[in-house]
Each structure stands twice: as C-alpha cells, then as structure tokens.
C-alpha cells in the first residue's frame, strides 16, 4: 500500500484530524512568540515554564483534582509573569531565575508524585508528561475547541500588538521613555507564553516545548533580516515542520513530540547550510 | 518658561542618596551637557528625566508645550540590539509609536515622518538594510532618527559617541550640532569634557560638588578647576586653569 493511500485512510479518523488541527495551531502560536522570546534572551523560558506546569500537574494529581487545568494554567501564568517581569528590583534575574524555577518545579513535582503515588505506573506517567504522549491522539472535541479558541486569541494578540512587541523587544527603555505601557506588553507576552506552553504540553511534553519555541525562530533568523520576515518565516516553518512531524509519527509509529522536534532540527540545519553558502557566496562576490 | 525645570531634585536608589540639591532648567535652544565622574548619578538623572524612575524627592516640571514622554531619547546600545534582525525602517518607525495617540498600526503620517527623519540623517539609502550589519556610526544615526520621530522639541543623548572611532565621532557631533541649530533643545550626557565644552550652552556638573550654569560660568568655576583633565587642550582650559590645578595638587 502506498503512503498516500495509508495517509488518507488515517485522515479519515476524526482523532487524527483533531491532532493535526491542534498541532498546527500550537506550533503556529509558539513560533510567533518564539521570536520575541529568543531576542529577549528568554530562550529557556519555555523549558522553565513547562517544568512549572509539570510540577503543578503533579500537585493537581496528588490533591486529586479532576480538572488539572484549573490549577496548572493559573500557576504557570503566575510564574511566567514573575519571570518576565523585568523590574530592576528583582534580586535574582534572567537566566538564573528561569533555571532555578525550572529545576525546582521539576524536582518537587517528581518528589510529590513519588511520595503520594496515586498511580501504579509513576515512571510511565512521568515519561509521558515530560516527552509528550499519545494524548494528542486522544483529544476530545471539547479540548480541540478550547485549543482553537485560545490559539486564535493568542494569534490575535500577537497581530494587534505586533508593533508594540517589536519596540518592547528591541529597546524597552526607549519604548518606556516614549510613554509605552511596557509593563502591560510584557504581561501580555508572559500570559500568552504561559497559555501556549500549557497547551503545548499535550503535544510534545514538557521537555521538548523549548524546541517548538526556539527552533523556528532561530532558523528564520539565519536567513532573514527584518523582524517581519523573521516572524512570518518562523510561523510558516513551524507549521510545516509540525505537520510533517505529525504525519511521519502517525505513519511510522514514532513518538509524536520527538519526531516534530527532529523535523525542526532538520529545518534548522538546512537553513544554516543555505545561510553559510550564501555568506560564502556573498564574500566571494565582494572579493571578486 | 523652560521646557524642563528640576526643583531640588534628590536622586538615588534603594533609599541610598547619590546626588541631591539639583536645580536646573533647560529652555528651547539650549544645549545642556551633563558631566561628572562614573557613578556620580548621570544615568540616574537621565532615567528620572525620562520618567523611567522616580526621584527620592523634588520634582521635574515640564513646560513650554513639552509633555512628558516627548523627549527623543538616544540610549546607549545594548547587547540585545547588536544581533537583532530588524531593518532600519522598522526601527525608525518604532519611534513614531508612542506619540500619545491610540492605534496599533502605523499611519501614513507616521511613515512620512520616519522617511523625513531618515532623509535628514542621510540614512534613506539604508532603509531596507539589516540593523546588525551596519557600522557603529550608522547604527547611531538610525537610533537618532528614531529619537527624532518621538520628539519635536528635545533630544536626550546618552554618551552619543561611545564606541565610535574618532572620525565617526566627529561626524556624529556635527550632526548633533546641526539638529541643535535647527532649534531642538539637547541634553547630552558625556564623558568627553572637551566635546561637551565645545557645544554646550549650559553645563550641569554632578558628583561631589554640583554646578549648574552657562558654559562660561563653568569654565571659571572651582568645580571645573578640580575636574577638568590636564591634557584637555583646545576647548579646555587655558594656561591659568592649568596653573590653578597644579597648585591644588
């Protein structure tokens, strides 16, 4: 049976279509936010926040909450706001704060899961939370709708505040001096980041979220030179890689999260190669 | 009426006072140079004027049609900016953003203003170029064009020549002189006392003894005598000044 016949057979299942919709939307949102986050030197915030979400999930499990999101989302949002708050008053800043919260939440989460074991297969649970599970293939219609709504909101936020996000990212003091509400824009970036990360945990799991945030943005920055083209390229690239990764993982039965990240890595390598060839060509032309 | 008037300003952070008793004003057409050693509070003063931080006591009064947030600010470059993927026109346009009106996207007027300021600073040909590929002098011009988009009356320049080679420094100062000549008030923070004295109408010296007055008053003051570098030459002191300093040492 050829690949296309097999693919169309799979696509006939609603859960496969749901997975594709959610995958495309999440990769779109995370790649859009990735550009300002990488430029603000917050590449690791995806990692940090997803570990916070992991810790919160463990707590929710221990407490026995039926709706985990009710705890996970607010906790993650609060941590995002604290981390991205660039107030000069903070005693521990930037990378150190992210690293601290990230490792701390991961450890506490795992500890709680072990002490109050509520499931017979802890390591299986931990593994699927960290590396993503097949849960993206078992999404319910309600979850898909929630994801669509949140994604549309995030993209709308990004488009509306695009110019503001640019100026806050490029030069926060200038923007603030010129009267921009930089605190508000940073808050918007933080909250949106947290929402995307909690959504993305379904797709690739805690450990691989950073990849969704940083790889498309970094790849785009290899080739493009304006903020707008970097943003657009990052979004397109991320959607293409996620779709490819999802399809491959469905066909080949590989883990969803790691397959998508592998696709992102391949794209990054390709973009770097093109940039290197172009750079060498440019130098050669200049020398000639 | 002055554009900016500072009354009995006391600056510091974490409750620790750095400098107090600052009284000065800047009027249209002035060029005020702020000089002083490192750590004397120059940067803190600048942030206070821009509204980025609150003074410990005293107040900053805006007048003569200048509103808060209408100062065009030329900051020192940060590490983030050096490898930022953005074109010159994107950056200059971002200066138009905060002119006290509501709207999320740039208007035709904004684009026209940005184009006009790029023309003024001779960077129109760079409009589509990537910021991180420009030379230091070109980058400063881009940031200056952005500052001009944010103001019509006053520029605040933070070490405008830092990190530039001597030739580019000269042309940067020439540019500042031209803008000042066109009627924009300038506040400049500088380590370069010779450059400051060459163009200032007023001098604010902070750190230790505070001095505010015209350039000529400053040259005669004890504060200058104790501060000016020995090898100043040119615009700096005359033989008398040097002798005076010699006695002090």
Walk me through the structure.
Chain A is mainly α and 288 residues long. Chain A has one domain: ABC transporter involved in vitamin B12 uptake, BtuC (Orthogonal Bundle), CATH 1.10.3470. Helices cover 81% and strands 0% of the residues of chain A. Chain A has 13 helices and no strands. The termini of chain A are far apart. The C terminus of chain B is likely disordered. In chain B, the strands form 2 sheets. Chain B has a 6-stranded mixed sheet with strand order 5-6-7-3-8-9, sandwiched between helices. In chain B, helix 6 links the parallel strand 6 and strand 7. Chain B folds into 2 domains: 127 residues, 3-Layer(aba) Sandwich (Rossmann fold), CATH 3.40.50; 74 residues, no CATH class. In chain B, helix 3 packs parallel to helix 5 and helix 4 packs across helix 5. At the A-B interface, helix 8, helix 9 and helix 12 of A face helix 3 and helix 5 of B.
Give a quick rundown of the structure.
The complex is a heterodimer of chains A (288) and B (249). With 288 residues, chain A is mainly α.
Task: Looking at this protein, list some descriptive labels.
heterodimer, A: mainly alpha, ABC transporter involved in vitamin B12 uptake, BtuC, B: 249 residues, alpha/beta, Rossmann fold, 2 domains, six-stranded mixed sheet, three-stranded antiparallel sheet, 37% helix
Uncertain runs of chain B are: 230-249
Total strand count of chain B, please? 9
Note the beta-strand portion of chain B: 15-25%
End-to-end C-alpha gap of chain A? 54 Å
Cα distance, first to last residue of chain B? 42 Å
Just give the CATH class of chain A: Mainly Alpha
The CATH architecture classification of the largest domain in chain B is 3-Layer(aba) Sandwich
CATH topology of the largest domain in chain B: Rossmann fold
- Taken in chain order, the helices and strands of chain B follow as EEEHEEHHHHEHEHEEHHH
CATH class of the largest domain in chain B equals Alpha Beta
What is the H level of CATH, i.e. the homologous superfamily of chain A? ABC transporter involved in vitamin B12 uptake, BtuC
Total tally of structural domains of chain B: 2
Helix content of chain A: over 70%
pLDDT average of chain B, as an integer?
A: 81
Please tell me how large the radius of gyration of chain A is: 20 Å
């Amino acid at each position: 049976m050829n690949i296309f016949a097999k693919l169309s057979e799979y696509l006939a299942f609603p859960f496969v279509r749901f997975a594709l919709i959610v995958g495309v939307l999440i990769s779109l949102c995370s790649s859009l936010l990735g550009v300002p986050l990488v430029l603000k030197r917050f590449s690791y915030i995806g990692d940090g926040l997803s570990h916070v979400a992991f810790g919160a999930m463990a707590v929710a499990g221990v407490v026995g909450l039926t709706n985990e999101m009710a705890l996970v989302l607010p906790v993650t949002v609060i941590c995002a706001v604290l981390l991205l708050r660039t107030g000069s008053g903070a005693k521990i800043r930037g990378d150190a704060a992210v690293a601290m919260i990230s490792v701390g939440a991961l450890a506490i989460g795992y500890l709680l899961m072990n002490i109050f074991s509520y499931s017979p297969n802890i390591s299986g649970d931990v593994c699927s939370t960290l590396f993503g599970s097949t849960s993206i293939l078992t999404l319910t219609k309600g979850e898909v709708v929630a994801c669509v709504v949140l994604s549309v909101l995030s993209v709308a936020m990004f488009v509306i505040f695009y110019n503001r996000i640019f100026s806050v990212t490029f030069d926060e003091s200038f923007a603030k001096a010129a009267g921009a509400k930089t605190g508000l824009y940073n808050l918007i970036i933080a909250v949106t980041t947290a929402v995307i990360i909690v959504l993305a945990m379904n797709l690739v799991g805690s450990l691989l979220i950073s990849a969704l945030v940083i790889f498309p943005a970094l790849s785009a920055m290899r080739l493009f030179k304006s903020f707008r083209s970097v943003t657009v390229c990052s979004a397109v690239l991320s959607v293409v890689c996620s779709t490819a990764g999802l399809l491959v993982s469905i066909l080949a039965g590989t883990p969803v999260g790691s397959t998508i990240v592998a696709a992102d890595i391949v794209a990054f390598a390709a973009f770097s190669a093109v940039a290197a060839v172009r750079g060498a060509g440019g130098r050669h032309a200049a020398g000639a | 009426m002055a554009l900016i008037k500072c009354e009995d300003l006391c600056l510091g952070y974490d409750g620790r006072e750095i400098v107090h008793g600052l009284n000065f004003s800047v009027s249209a057409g002035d060029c005020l140079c702020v000089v002083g050693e490192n750590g004397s509070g120059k940067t803190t003063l600048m942030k206070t004027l821009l509204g980025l931080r609150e003074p410990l006591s005293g107040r900053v009064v805006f007048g003569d049609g200048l509103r808060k947030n209408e100062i065009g600010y030329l900051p020192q470059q940060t590490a983030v900016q050096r490898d930022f993927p953005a074109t010159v026109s994107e950056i200059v346009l971002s200066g138009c953003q905060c002119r006290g009106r509501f709207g999320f996207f740039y208007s035709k007027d904004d684009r026209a203003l940005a184009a006009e300021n790029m023309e003024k600073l001779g960077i129109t040909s760079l409009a589509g170029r990537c910021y991180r590929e420009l030379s230091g002098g070109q980058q400063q011009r881009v940031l200056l064009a952005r500052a001009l988009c944010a103001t019509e009356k006053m520029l605040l320049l933070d070490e405008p020549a830092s990190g530039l080679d001597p030739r580019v420094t000269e042309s940067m100062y020439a540019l500042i002189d031209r803008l000042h000549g066109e009627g924009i008030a300038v506040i400049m923070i500088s380590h370069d006392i010779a450059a400051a004295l060459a163009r200032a109408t007023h001098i604010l010296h902070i750190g230790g003894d505070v001095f505010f007055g015209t350039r000529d008053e400053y040259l005669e003051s004890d504060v200058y005598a104790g501060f000016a570098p020995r090898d100043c030459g040119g615009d700096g002191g005359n033989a008398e000044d040097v002798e005076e300093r010699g006695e002090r040492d």
